[in-house]
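Lecture notes, structural biology module. Today: joint structure prediction for complexes of four components.
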Amino acid sequence: MSTAAGGGSVPIPEVVIVRLPLYVRVLTQLRDGGTEVVSSRELGTRLGVTPAQIRKDLSYFGRFGKQGRGYNVSFLVGELRRVLGLDREWNTAVIGVGRLGRAIINYPGFEPEGFRVVAAFDADPDQVGRHFGNVRVRSTSDLDRAIVDEAIDIAIVAVPAAEAQDVIDSLVKCGIKAILNYAPIAPQVPDEVKVRNIDPVLGLQTMTYHLKTMGSDRT
Amino acid sequence: MSTAAGGGSVPIPEVVIVRLPLYVRVLTQLRDGGTEVVSSRELGTRLGVTPAQIRKDLSYFGRFGKQGRGYNVSFLVGELRRVLGLDREWNTAVIGVGRLGRAIINYPGFEPEGFRVVAAFDADPDQVGRHFGNVRVRSTSDLDRAIVDEAIDIAIVAVPAAEAQDVIDSLVKCGIKAILNYAPIAPQVPDEVKVRNIDPVLGLQTMTYHLKTMGSDRT
DNA sequence: TAATGTGAAAACCTTCACAGCT
DNA sequence: AGCTGTGAAGGTTTTCACATTA
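The predicted structure, tokenised, for the full assembly:
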């Protein structure tokens, strides 16, 4: 008990969780632009989502608005960040320091959002000991130890497809509960481990379906 | 007419389209590993999806299986690739050749899947004329002309967040119907334009919710 | 026997519509 | 007057379960 906030103790749909970061992003933008209050209608327009959906989504976590007025932007950002666990920093480790892994280590978008890359690993002994960003590459055989030492919360997998499932298995054995996977595979993990896949090719491949099915209203 | 294949003329849910590329990926792996026939149960296990869902999904497009036996892997891969429009090559243009844009141009995962980067654009005159991979950077003001000349099917947006919506507006004006967006924004486009967002931070931010809500069964 | 393809049932998610608060 | 919060309605997606076929 004491875990869930506000509304009721209804189980919260995963789709709702997936939308919250989007809300946070747009709200943050509004706040930084000086907007103090926003209605679900206004927010919905900016997100391409219905106002009712926004109100329903927020209602899972509490009553953040004022009737007749709308939502205080700063307040709502804060509440949603708290709900998502974004009111603290999270430590990540990048596994695989090839082209992609190095790009991830140097990606400037994580740090400002509270995600720090504090460790890097590679199976190739030639890479071990090198420095990228401000992390030193360690051997994959150190995974277990390092994950505890560095208090890693999230693993970022950037190894070739052929090795990815093995790496993910090791991570799971080490007790990792969250994995951001860049390898183009469908990872197998136990239920209690969360995986998000970053895979531009999948995005392209769904769009071609729609491109193909187009212009068919032209004779 | 003659567009929709197989089963019936039921409108096909977008979630189904989104799953197809995953099926293609796992099936391709199986095929390359020498598997000739696969059942929906086997496939489901590898994808973390129920067998019924796979059968229902496939039934939107045709009857690809054999009762009592399963699906011929090579045949099914071919059919699904055809359904998704992956039986041809698609031309893409990368907009923005900063760190991220250059990484995308050099990403080796697109070409083997039939996606070619045939043009690159940047607003910065210092970048115009430079070469990355085997494309020459052009001025963003040439977008319109170049999209027609190079027969660009898909735009890949890799500009800073602040410029992304403007770039997307230009692309839409040029008639682009598919955009792969790497900028951390919620893009606004007309219904007929498809957008897929690649945003690792959103993935991380949904996982922290689950991490936070964990270990609560340990009193 | 084994596994597909599919109507029907169940689960899930979104939208409606309005009471209630500011 | 305006907009939230929310039960109930409506719509969509998933799962079930079985007739059917190899």
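Point to remember: Chain A touches chain B through 59 residues (CB under 8 Å).
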